[in-house]
Design brief:
Radius of gyration: 21 Å
Helix content: 25-40%
Number of helices: 18
Length: 471
């Protein structure tokens, strides 16, 4: 069997590897000059300062069943961890911290400690089984029905509902920062599930980063694929499926909107319209920094965490994310900040450091957010601006220009509300196969959604193999 994969993000490479391991002859075609999609690294600011194009911190990769099954260390992938997976500074100079240990996290939360341990301990104890259940289409026959049902009762709650278990600002803020990765309102059903999953992975496998940049993930996957006989062609944009066989499978590591345009002549009209109308998530405004010193956080714990959640209390973050959901630009946004050189000094010259920060903005936003983002950093790290040697600003349109899958700055492949997690990109028992064609969608517009885990590509490839009678 011959197969073509269009797009070389982690999901495209995962699909190609899954096909090649089953004996298929696989070609990957990538529009950009370098492979990797969102998992790429480059010198964006100054020579010697290595920045990640999109993703930097990868708890889902560390906990992914697909990644776990590959010998990627043999191909140069090395995970490194900061002392604390996540820190969330507060205005009084303290910080809520997610430790690798559930018990230590609970102890640091004081009077909320027992409640936190009761919430997270059962999830962490069964994390591998749970990951196998929710890193696939949510509408499936579960292997562990009672375990999934218990998780589901919690996961359906809003982040605000989940946070109501706690009374302290620290515990509630920790939940808010984790849940805000959902890119939806913290009042929305299932927004709490993101806090549960990311917190669970933080305890079970950490929030690691690849030494040398996110590009190392893509390069390791590519090296493994080539070892299986697969080929990769970069710098070739596919604008039409003319010339591609309608008999051999084609897997599209493209968003639902790109797939609708590219395959419009092969898809039923109704399906094409449905893909084209798949709702977007909010956009992202991102700034990369070259620094002459570590960020001077008031809270000491923040100096030893690669990931920082900025935004203050639960209510402040909930307000900001609700404003974005309403199409408004928040004056004090939730800011996600990564500082890789806390544990990976290879990304900057001696004495230098790198960091990036982004906030959510409404789709189509053209408001300049650099100053707003930096005000939130200065709020918890006075003197930050004096550390900045250079900055590189990526507005939503810039992100799309560097990677067409980041459509309008949407980094999640489409909306992540409850309905669009259940029916992604639409209702049906096989969300990957496009009608009765031999086209398969394998991007984050399919289950289980955004993140570097490769599971969208893996599941799409398995469906393609099943359709062709391969194993």
């Amino acid at each position: 069997m011959k197969a073509t994969v269009i797009g070389s993000g982690p999901n495209g490479l995962a699909a190609a590897i899954t096909l090649a391991r089953a004996g298929a002859e696989v070609q990957v075609i990538e529009a950009q000059a370098t492979l990797g999609g969102g998992a790429r690294s480059m010198e964006l600011t100054l020579p010697g300062f290595l920045h990640d194009h999109c993703s930097s911190i990868h708890p889902l990769a560390a906990g992914s069943p697909f990644f776990h099954d590959l010998p990627l260390r043999d191909h140069g992938l090395e995970w490194v961890h900061s002392r604390y997976p996540v820190a969330h500074p507060l205005d009084d100079g303290t910080a809520a911290v997610l430790h690798r240990s559930v018990t230590k996290t609970g102890a640091a939360l004081g009077t909320d400690g027992d409640a936190y341990v009761r919430l997270m301990r059962p999830l962490v104890d069964h994390w591998e089984k749970l990951a196998g259940e929710f890193l696939q289409p949510l509408l499936h026959i579960p292997r562990h029905p009672w375990l999934l049902a218990g998780f589901g009762l919690l996961a359906l709650r809003s982040a605000r509902g989940l946070a109501s278990r706690f009374s302290s600002d620290a515990a509630r803020a920790l939940i808010a920062g984790l849940a805000a990765h959902s890119s939806i309102s913290l009042e929305a059903p299932a927004s709490g599930s993101f806090a549960l999953v990311l917190g669970m992975f933080g305890h079970a496998v950490g929030w690691p980063l690849p030494r040398g940049g996110a590009q190392r993930i893509s390069d390791a996957l590519a090296a493994y694929l080539r070892g299986l006989g697969g080929t990769i062609e970069t710098g070739r944009a596919i604008t039409s499926l003319e010339g591609f066989s309608g008999v051999d499978p084609i897997l599209l590591d493209l968003t639902a909107w790109q797939a609708a345009r590219l395959a419009r002549d092969r898809l039923p009209v109704r399906l094409g319209k449905a893909l084209a109308s798949f709702p977007h998530g909010p956009s992202v405004f991102k700034v990369d920094y070259a620094l002459n010193a570590p960020i001077p956080w008031k809270a000491e714990e923040c100096r030893e965490a690669a990931t920082i959640h900025l935004g203050g209390t639960f209510d402040e973050i909930a307000t900001a994310e609700h404003e974005v959901a309403r199409g408004e630009v928040p004056a004090r946004p939730f800011v996600l900040l990564a500082q890789p050189t806390v544990c990976d000094p290879s990304r900057a010259p001696a004495g230098g450091h790198t960091a990036w920060a982004y906030c959510h903005v409404p789709r189509g936003n053209t408001v300049e957010m650099t100053g707003t983002i930096e005000a939130q950093i200065e709020r918890f790290a006075p003197g930050f601006s004096r550390c900045v040697l250079a900055r590189h600003v990526s507005r939503p349109a810039d992100l799309q220009a560097g990677n067409a899958n980041l459509d309008g700055g949407d980094i999640t492949g489409g909306a992540c509300d409850l309905w669009h997690l259940l029916a992604r990109p639409g209702p049906g028992s096989n969300p990957y196969r496009l009608a009765r064609t031999h086209l398969y969608l394998c991007s984050s517009s399919t289950p289980p959604g955004g993140g570097v885990h490769g599971m969208c590509g893996y599941h799409a490839a398995r469906r393609a193999l099943a359709a062709f009678g391969a194993h």
